[in-house]
Amino acid sequence: MALRDKLVTMAHGSGGKAMRDLIEDVFTSVFQPPGSEDQARLMSESLQKPGARLAFTTDSFVVTPLEFPGGNIGKIAVCGTVNDLAVGGARPLWLSAAFIIEEGCEIALLRRIVASMADEAAKAGVQIVTGDTKVVERGKGDGVFIITSGIGVIPAGRDIGATRIKAGDVVIVNGVLGDHGATILAARGDLALSVDLISDCAGLGHLMDAALTVAPGITAARDCTRGGLASALNEMATEAGLAVELDEAHLPLRPEVAGVCEILGLDPLYLANEGRLVLFCPPDQADSALAAMRACPEGAGAVVIGRALAGQPGRVTMRTRFGGARIVDMLVGEQLPRIC
Prior knowledge:
With 340 residues, the protein is α+β, with helices and mostly antiparallel strands. The protein contains eight helices and 13 strands. The protein is 29% helix and 23% strand.
């Protein structure tokens, strides 16, 4: 029987018929997991190849508002987990999805979130194979929280990570920075900001695989989520034991994002992104990596923004447009909470 309720009630988390109706009508009818057991049983030909390794990641998503220009919490949940696998060189294959739903949440909103997740999973070539739902009392859950885990396969011979970065490697990003953070800030309506921005939320598995295919010397990659580009680079520079120098003139920023940051006293280097990664690549393979990335919709704006140096370990600096230099430190505190 089709679910007729318009709002989630505590009965939908009771373990009885109401919960079964919610799960079957809203979730499994869309995700179509392989089987109905308490665990997913998985097999892939890629796992049978000698030298292949599993990659596993987990994340939780608490973004507010739940829907925003360019996406919703469901889209972020799939893209964020896919991207965490992809930047490690893995090809994402399977996801789990657990939902903590607040009593009173609209069923129609849940359907939109689930539809978005199914759409993004199909684009990324992954299956949502298992999951869970829990319902909490009104006022205890803020709508919907989503917890996802992902499994991917790292092909034999592929080994990337921050400790492999070498002095001289160029730093590449796949497009404009800060769109997601600025979009969420404007969508909350707390400030009188009239900007036409859309979140950059996107899955980057195909882009990363394309880049690694033509530039197998890529040494490391990281997605620039909470803490933005600056925090990702500080983490990577510290792990590599090298310095990183950026060129401000080459940083890709929309004027609208730069304007929002100027008005509010924010630094766009620390704004969250949900469809942007930074990677390190040997200079002789940079052109090939850029061409492969630009051939993907998510990488059309790929550009070199700096390089790794044999300087003070962990230090990130930026050459300014005026010829000076400034330190780009790790984010202290929180620029914008509940961003993803």
